[in-house]
Every structure is written in structure tokens, then in C-alpha cells.
Specification:
mainly alpha, 85% helix, 0% strand
């Protein structure tokens, strides 16, 4: 009886971690996509909002694009780290708190540079880190 309960608890714990890992990977992908959007469209967004009703003639400076390039690249890097940490959290039994903390840290950091993966990626990665920490 005790053995069956322990086995059932392990199965539920594994499913919970798989669910959290999926959320972490999808959240990391959204963070990467938001970083790519910042790199590609950062300067265009500035020029589009400078005209009447958001319409202008796309006359943006290269300095505006250069401003968004490092921000977007750092957003891409934070998304990749969230993905790697989520997968490592799932496949390793040791250092779960380290990987969970890493997911949480870079999820929060993504709010500053990639809009948190359109904010949905932030919440998904946050859920992954919390599930990983609660599993211990």
C-alpha cells in the first residue's frame, strides 16, 4: 500500500514537471521571438509613431536601429537560456533549485529587454520556475 502511494506520487510529480517544462520551453521560444521582433522592427516602430496617426515615410536613422540591436540580441540570449534551463530542469535530478532559479531570473530579466516574450512568455517561464522550485 505504501509502495503504491509512493509510486503514484512519483508519477504525479513527473507529470507536473513535464507540464512545467513545456511551459518553460514555450515561454523561452516566445521570449526569443520577441527579441527577434525587437531586432527587426525596433527602429521601424519608432519611425512609425513619429508621423500623423502613426503614419510616416519610414525615415529612421541607423542610430535608432543600432539602439535596438543589443537590446534585442540580449532578449534572444535570455530566451535561449530559459529554454536550456527548462530542459535541464526536466532531465536532471540534481541542482533543481539552481535550474529553477535560473529560469526565474532570466524570465524576470526578459521583461526589461524582450517585453517578457509578449508578456505571455514571461508568465509561462515563471510558472516553470515555480513548479521546479516546488518540486525541490
Amino acid at each position: 500500500m505504501v509502495r503504491n502511494m509512493a509510486k503514484k506520487s512519483a508519477v504525479v510529480r513527473k507529470e507536473k514537471t513535464q507540464f512545467g517544462t513545456v511551459f518553460g520551453v514555450v515561454g523561452g521560444i516566445l521570449i526569443v521571438l520577441a527579441g527577434v521582433a525587437v531586432v527587426l522592427y525596433g527602429g521601424n516602430i519608432l519611425s512609425l509613431t513619429s508621423g500623423t496617426f502613426g503614419i510616416s515615410q519610414y525615415n529612421f536613422n541607423t542610430s535608432e536601429i543600432g539602439l535596438f540591436l543589443p537590446i534585442g540580441l540580449f532578449g534572444i540570449l535570455t530566451g535561449i537560456i530559459v529554454i536550456i534551463s527548462s530542459v535541464a530542469l526536466h532531465y536532471t535530478d540534481k541542482n533543481r533549485s539552481f535550474w529553477s532559479t535560473l529560469v526565474l531570473f532570466f524570465a524576470v530579466l526578459s521583461l526589461t529587454n524582450a517585453a517578457g516574450g509578449f508578456f505571455v512568455g514571461f508568465f509561462m517561464a515563471l510558472f516553470c520556475g515555480i513548479v521546479g522550485l516546488s518540486r525541490g
